[in-house]
Design brief:
Blueprint lengths: L1 E6 L6 H13 L4 E4 L10 H10 L3 E3 L4 H7 L11 H13 L2 H8 L4 E6 L2 E6 L18 H8 L6 E3 L7 E5 L2 E5 L15 E7 L2 E7 L5 H10 L5 H9 L7
Parallel strand pairs: 1-2, 2-3, 5-6, 6-8
Antiparallel strand pairs: 1-9, 4-5, 7-8, 9-10
Helix pairs in contact: 3-4
Length: about 240
């Protein structure tokens, strides 16, 4: 039997990442998958990237935010991105060390693993015709998941990008997004993640939501003067800005 810790979209939230890793290690996980969006939004891009980079037992994939910090130094920006968001990504670029920037640039878009007789495909999300990450499909059905991920091999498909998360079983196949680890969207001080249990060609998913101090995150936005902090706290955390 093998237990793999799965999480996605830590988005620069260091207390949430530490809480999730502590929980998953305590649950017996010795191997981990992160489905992208390591940086962006949260106030600790450098610390989150450095922690994940330092861990030889965590496989990380690239998400859209892991590309934005390099694409927003000057126009033209990615599609539909306004100046305020671009300014935030320039701040992320300035906060990262050169080593972290280089590591993020080299993250793969997808991977396939064979474990305990189970084939696993993982990615942040499919790309659209323009080569950008597609917009998340809200509350996808089995039919939606087949259309989005049917080209991928394996019994288990892991992804991120949709912060709400989903787990859709389609016959002998599981499509799984654990939800955003770092962006609770008003759900409170929880770091969404989970354990994928593999045993002799069978899989089982156990969702988890360990707690952390959301007040620490709120204070760090003010202390680090994160650009667009008010909007990010409101839209991604469901919190008022510390100065309000």
């Amino acid at each position: 039997m093998l237990r793999i810790g799965v999480f996605s979209d830590p988005h620069g939230n260091l207390p949430a990442l530490k809480a999730a890793l502590a929980y998953l290690e305590g649950a017996g996980c010795r191997e981990f998958l992160c489905c992208g969006d390591l940086v962006g939004v949260g106030p600790w891009p450098r610390e989150v990237a450095a922690l994940l980079q330092s861990r030889g037992d965590i496989r990380c994939l690239a998400g859209n935010h892991d590309r934005y910090f390099d694409r927003c130094l000057a126009p033209p920006y990615p599609p539909r991105m306004e100046e305020g968001e671009a300014a935030h990504h320039r701040w992320v670029h300035s906060a990262l060390t050169p080593a972290c920037r280089g590591w993020l640039r080299e993250l793969p878009l997808s991977l396939t693993l064979q474990r305990e007789g189970v084939c696993i495909s993982a990615l942040h999300y499919p790309l659209d015709a323009a080569g950008e990450f597609a917009a998340p499909h809200p509350a996808p059905t089995a039919r939606d998941c087949r259309a989005l991920f049917g080209h991928l091999p394996g019994q288990v498909v892991l992804c991120g990008h949709d912060h709400a998360g989903f787990a859709v079983a389609d016959g002998e196949r599981l499509y799984l997004d654990p939800g955003s680890l770092g962006c609770p969207h008003g759900l409170g001080d929880i770091a969404r993640c989970g354990v994928l249990i593999l045993d002799r060609d069978r899989w089982q998913w156990q969702a988890a939501a360990p707690a952390y101090d959301l007040g620490e995150v709120r204070a760090a936005f003010a202390r680090r003067r994160v650009p667009e902090g008010s909007a990010l706290l409101r839209d991604f955390y469901g919190l008022p800005h510390p100065s309000s």
